[in-house]
Every structure is written in C-alpha cells, then in structure tokens.
Amino acid sequence: MAVAHGSRDPRAAATVAALLDQVPLDVRVAYLDHCAPTLAQALSGLQEAVVLPLLLTEAYHSRVDLPAALNDVRAREPRLRVHYGATLGPHPLLLTALERRLAESGVPAGDPDTAVVLVSAGSSDARANAVITDLARAWRRSGWWTVSAAYASAAGPSPAEAVAALRRAGAPRVAVAPYLLAPGHFADKVRRSTLEAGAAVVSDVLGPAPELVDVLLERYEQAQRRQPVSLVG
Question: Residue 209: beta bridge partners?
C-alpha cells in the first residue's frame, strides 16, 4: 500500500500512477488528503499489508498523519496486520535520480561550472529540513561549483533567494533541482520564481524515475521483514 500526500492537481496522481505502474508487485495507492481512495478505503477487506509512505523525508505526515490514519483503520479492523515502512528518503539513489533529471535538462553530473539549488517542499519540522541540508552537503562532493539547500515553504531560504545568493557569489551557472515527487503547486512556483531570479535551468520533478522504483522495492523488502504491528494506542 503506497500512501502519497495527495493534491488537487491531477498531474500529481497521474505521476504517482506512472511510478507505481513500474513496480512489479501487487501495489495499491492511497492518499492522505485531496484524493481518493483514503487509506481506510484502500485497506478495507485486507488482512495484512505493507504500508509505504511515498514521502521524500520523514516529517509530520510520516510521523503523525499516517500513523494516526492507520490507528483509525486498526480500530475498525483489529485483525489487520500492518508492516509500516520507511519514507523514500533519504537514500543515495535519490541523488542519482536528481542527477538524471538535471542531465535530461542538459546539465552533466558534477559540472564544476554549475551551482545547484536543491529544493524541497519544506517542513515545520526542523529535523526534516536538516536532512535536506545534509543531502546538499553530501552532493557537493560530486564536483559541482556548490550545492545549496532551499525550501518551497515553511523554512528559508526560498528557492529564489538561494538562486540570487549564488549569482551574487559568482556562480558561473545556477541549476535548480526540485526534490519533489510530482508536479503541482510547489513545482510550478519553484520553476517560475527561480527562473525569474536568474536560474539557467530548472530540472523536472523526480516523478517515475527508475531509481525511485528501486528505492520503493527496497523499502518494501525492509518492511516485509519486520513483524507486523498493531498501531492502536
């Protein structure tokens, strides 16, 4: 059971479907908000399930919203056994997927004349934002001019602010890498604002990249090896 955040933008659900179509498992989808089916609807009638958050960082949705939704389901279906998996990120393959998207936009991996702005959705959870900062720091070692972290909401700097700062610092070229699963409001805003701020390139969202399929399968195998748990109480 793959659980996505959900969006009013139909492109988001289409992207999730395109990703899951590549997964060689009996996989179903549920959404925390905005879309159907809900987690309760998707789990109805099942006796056992592996529940995987289609989320790129561990934050409020994976720590609070999703466990609460599972608790509600378990209260109604006490025989349901759940293996709860980890979020997709952080994972080294996600950096490979980011580099894939940049390469598709004409930016070779580790180009020393390119500064990269790594953009996540942002969170009120400082721990989640720190993961993105650490990811940017690790990615710098690939040879880029530098890599800076930015956040589309809830934290700073904003993507446009990060682009402007790199241009002032003398970066020969600035590319923006959205650390976002699917197109939608945040992705559109990031593209518009960073191009206006002087970015030369904005790559596509991660979407149905093959690396995400590999990460999802790894998370599934890890969760399946754990004992099923009751989340009630």
Answer: none
